[in-house]
Specification:
With 180 residues, the protein is mainly alpha-helical. The protein is built from 10 helices and no strands. Helix 4 (68-81) runs antiparallel to helix 5 (86-97), helix 5 runs antiparallel to helix 6 (102-115) and helix 9 packs antiparallel against helix 10 (170-179).
Length: 180
């Protein structure tokens, strides 16, 4: 059922359809790849990671489209079809962020975090986006808030501690490092 060669064929076919201007048919192919993985009986974190990987793989294929308007429309269609899956919002955030559209990227990752609060990977990605966009005060406030809400997220605590250290807040950084 998860035959990688079939998934690859669908991915290539979807890309060809997208280049041919058949966005809806292309997204149908991408959707089939993702639905096959979603319908798996395995709900482990490894399975969830595989699902996110598939979403990102599809987004990378979409991003290769030379016409950015067609690519954006294909991504928006994918988001519409999977709007209750936090992975699609993470993927949209990555897509927009990789082209420097930080406002759209931040809105998308926030949607993902609303669907799955405490998602460590999404929290760290939002932190990266805030940092890349130069929103350093928002970054500090966001990480402080996330550490308070989800004290079990050790990677988030470490990221917050690193930022505190880089800003000369050594005593705060040490407290955070001790939490981990």
């Amino acid at each position: 059922k998860h035959d990688p060669s079939k998934q690859e064929a669908r991915l290539i076919y979807g890309s060809a359809l997208l280049r041919d201007g058949q966005q809806s048919a292309a997204v149908d192919q991408f959707e089939e790849i993702i639905r096959t993985r979603q319908n798996s009986s395995d709900s482990s974190s490894k399975q969830q990671g595989a699902l996110l990987t598939l979403f990102l793989l599809v987004a990378k294929q979409i991003q290769q489209e030379s016409d950015s308007q067609i690519a954006d429309q294909a991504l928006q269609e994918l988001v519409k079809r999977f709007n209750q899956d936090p992975n699609v919002w993470y993927t949209a955030s990555w897509y927009y962020g990789s082209s420097g559209r930080f406002e759209q990227a931040l809105k998308a990752i926030e949607q993902g975090l609303q669907l799955q609060p405490g998602w460590e990977q999404a929290i760290l990605f939002k932190a990266e986006l805030l940092n890349s966009s130069g929103a350093h005060q928002k970054l500090l406030g966001f990480l402080r808030n996330q550490v308070q809400k989800f004290p079990q997220n050790s990677e988030v605590i470490l990221r917050y501690a690193q930022i505190q250290l880089s800003q000369g807040n050594d005593s705060e950084a040490i407290k955070l490092f001790r939490q981990v």
